[in-house]
Every structure is written in structure tokens, then in C-alpha cells.
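tool_call: predict_structure(chain=1)
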Amino acid sequence: MSLFEPSEIFQFAIRIEQNGENFYRKMAEKLDDKPLQDLFISLADEEVKHKKIYQNMVSEIESYEPFESYSGEYYEYLRAYADNIVFDEEKLDDKIAAISDKLSAIDFAIDNEISSILYYQEIKNLVPKGKHAQIDKIIEEERKHFARLTKIKKSV
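tool_result:
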């Protein structure tokens, strides 16, 4: 028996994508480098697309109704959990303030994309094997971000 249902994993993914979008938009506002601003805006827009993909994945799999002491309790937990895995929303402003140049901004983004990839690879172990392909879709989307950031880093 797995610890999480696949729909729960997609709720984590949705929250991570929301936090990723927030990070990229805030970095785009902070940076004075137009090409890098454009990159971060583009990545933020892709996070929105990824979030929609993950929301569609949730609608395609079994529904999951967790036991809750009060309405929304479980999804508050999921949001908090995802916030602590990647792009912690409460600490985001402090992290952005500590970024002093475009290379450190790119490095921070790469580190968070790697964290996302590793998280999803580990989380695959918690869902039935029949659902691994859906988790692999999430991993592939995060790898695209990583590859794009790595390519840009080489030119900085």
C-alpha cells in the first residue's frame, strides 16, 4: 500500500508550480538584465502551463477524499508540505533579496529545478507502478526547465 494516492502527488506538483511561478516573476522584477528577465517571465508562464497540465492529470485519475477534521485541512497540509520542498513561499522574499547577480539567480533557479526533479523521482516510489508514467510527465517538464537554465548559464 502506498503512502500517497496519485491525486495527492499532483496536488503537491500544483503547489510547487504555483510557488515556482511566484519565484520566477519576482526574479524578473528584480533583475535589470532584459534577456534574463525575459527568460524568467517565460519560465513563470511555463509554470502556469505545467500547473494546468497537472490539474488535468488530477481530473483523469481517481478522486481522493481524505479524512479531515475540518474542510480543507488536508489540502492545507499538502500546500505546506510542497512549500517546504521547493520554493518555500514564506522565505522566497529573503532568498530573492540574497541574490545579488544574474549568475546567482540562475544558480538558485537551477538548484530548485533539480530539487523538483529529485522530489518527483523519489515520490514515484510512493505511488502504484501503474501511475509512474504520470509522475514521469512531471519529471520531464522539470527537466526542460533545468536544461533551458543550464544552457543560459553557459552564456552568462
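agent: The chain has a mean pLDDT of 82. Proceeding to next step.
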